[in-house]
Amino acid sequence: MKLPDSVKDPLIDTHAHLGMAQFELDRDEVVARAAEASLVAIINVGFEPPDWEGTMALSRRYPMVHPAIGIHPNSSDQANPQTLGELAERCVAAGEGPDALRVVALGETGLDFYRDYVPRDVQRAAFRAQLDLARQLDLPVIIHNRDAHADVLEVLRRDGAGTRGVMHSFDGDLDFAMDCIELGYLISLAGPVSFRNASDKHVIARSVPLEHLLVETDCPFLTPEPFRGRRNEPQYVQFTARAIARERNIEEAEVRRATTMNACSLFGLRPSFEY
User: Fold this and answer.
1) At 236, which CATH number?
2) Which residues are paired to 79 by β-bridges?
3) pLDDT at 93
4) Residue ranges of the chain with pLDDT lower than 50?
5) What are the DSSP E strand ranges found in the chain?
6) How many structural domains does the chain have?
7) In this structure, is residue 61 part of a structural domain?
């Protein structure tokens, strides 16, 4: 895949939560600022059943915003035959009809052993169920992992065959990153890679092959420098790309174009340019 020279430094935020209350007062302006910052797409994630309809509605309102829906590990006690059936139906129905939206990914799902809001066996069961659903629907998976590296790998090795996706807001060492890549998953970096003391993230930024990297905000969280401490928003993903370029000693434009191509390939995006 090759982006045309007429498209200058495109960028995709591969993980945002635009439905959250932090954006209620200025959502139109947030999306407009993203477009002005050369973003060509935003993956907006609805992470529990009550969020799904709102996630789809935002994509109907903003053409550059693409929906992903799933059940977060901290909400995995909501995963049951009824909600999983609804998740499958929404993913399929979204692709029907002349004005249909296309759900571009399933998630975020995964494991969170830091919060431990939900028993770990319940998290694992919900994770496995969503991997199976993603395989049936041929959708990429957005994986949340916090303090559960070994368990995530175990589930992917046992139950993830035939799936692909992204390790969102990657938090692990290089060995873990390469294990994930071997299993068919890309590595997505967020704002913390811009922090001066984030040496673990700097290693990932320098060492993971560019063809396996994505960038994201995870907004409204994880705001990069120089806006750390404020609400995050999609336009700030440019500072994550800039930090990766700095660590790799390459031009920021190279990071922008590579991660944009990677995102288009993974999520099957056709944003407002030809490629």
Assistant:
1) 3.20.20.140
2) none
3) 80
4) 1-4, 274-275
5) 11-16, 39-46, 65-69, 105-112, 141-146, 165-167, 185-189, 213-215
6) 1
7) yes
